[in-house]
Amino acid sequence: MHFKIGLCQLSVTPDKERNIKHAKKAIEEAAQRGAQLVLLPEIWNSPYSNDSFPVYAEDIDAGGDASPSTAMLSEVASHLKITIVGGSIPERFGDKLYNTCCVFGSDGKLKAKHRKIHLFDIDIPGKITFMESKTLTAGETPTVVDTDVGRIGIGIYYDIRFTELAMIYAARGAHLICYPGAFNMTTGPLHWELSQRARAMDNQLYVATCSPARDPGAGYVAWGHSTLVGPFGEVLATIEHEEDIIIAEIDYSILEQRREPIVSSTCFMEFAYSIMLSDHSNGLLVIKIQGKSSLHETTTGRSLQAGRHAEVQLSLM
Asked: Where is the CN hydrolase domain (predicted)?
C-alpha cells in the first residue's frame, strides 16, 4: 500500500471556535494536496494547561453540540473520504477528564478512541514543571485500529517514551504508529526526534508525529518539529516550529524490504533476556522480561538476576 500522509502543525489559541475552523481548513488543504491520512496535534482545540482542560473538555460519546471538535472531524472525514487521526482534545467522561485521540474513517464514523496512557508529570528545577495528573486521568488501553490506510497504533505525547507500548503495536501488526505530541522546549531538543527514530527502528515500522506550532507567548511552549520517520529510523520529512503542513509518502512494501535483512523479532530472543508478549482472556497483555544472566542497570543500582523476571500488564479491552 502506498499513500500520502498529511501532518498539520497548527497554531492554537484560546478561541476554541477559531481552533476548530482553523483545523478544518488545514485538513482540507492537506487532502487537496493528496493526503489520504491526516494527523493533527495534541490538544489542538485548547491551550495546553491544567486550567484549560476542564473548560475546553468535550463529551465525545455524546457527540453533536457536546463535542463540536469531533463533530467537525467526522464531517470532514466523510466529506473528503479520508482517514483522520484527530490529534487529541480534552475529553469529559463522567467526573473524569482524559487526553483523548479519536480516529475517524473515510465514512466519517469513529473507528477508535485512545486515551493517553502515560500522563506527563515533570519537574525539572529552573526549566519546566507540569503535572497532567492534577486534572487528567490516565487511559488504560493500547489502541490499534484497522483503517483504509492500514493498521495504525495510537499514542499521545508521553506514550512515545515507553517502548513496551510500541512493541505491543508491532506485535499486533501495526504498519504505522501515530503520536500527536506537544513536547516542550526542554526535552524537545533532546528527545523528540530521538524517541521517534528509536520507536520506528526498534519495531521496523513507520512513526508519524504531529506537534502544535510554537507560540513563545503561551504558558506552555511546544517544540514543534512534526516528523515522519521510516522503518529504518530515517527521517523522511520534518518541519521546524512554525505553522505548516507536511505532505509525505508512506509505502508499506518497504516494511518487508527493511525487515527481511534484519529480522530483529527472531534474533531478539537469543540474547541475554527474552520478552514474551501474550494475550489473556481477561483482556490483559503481559510483557515478561526474563533474565538469563545478571543484567545490571547502572543508573539505578538495580539488577535483574538470572531466572527472575519483571512483568508489565496493559488492558486490551
From this structure: 3-252
Q: In terms of domains, do 163 and 53 share one?
A: yes
Same domain for 46 and 185, yes or no, is yes
Span 244-276, pLDDT tens digits: 999 999 999 989 877 766 655 555 544 444 455
CB 145 within 8 A of CB 151: yes
Separation of alpha carbons 31 and 8, rounded Å: 11
User: Within a domain: residue 278?
Assistant: yes
105 plus 229 within the same structural domain = yes
Burial 283-304 (b: 16+ CB within 10 A, else e): eebebebbbeeeeeeeeeeeeb
pTM over 0.85: no
Q: Which domain holds residue 189?
A: 2-259
Report yes or no on 9 lying in a domain.
yes
Decide if 149 is inside a domain.
yes
Cβ neighbour number for residue 231 with a 10 Å cutoff: 22
What nine digits make up the cell of 70?
469531533
How many angstroms separate the first and last alpha carbons of the chain? 29
Q: 52 - beta bridge partners? A: none
Cα 7–chain centre separation: 13
Q: How far apart are CA 281 and CA 263, in angstroms?
A: 29
- Final residue of a structural domain among 235, 259, 283: 259
Residue 209 covered by a domain: yes
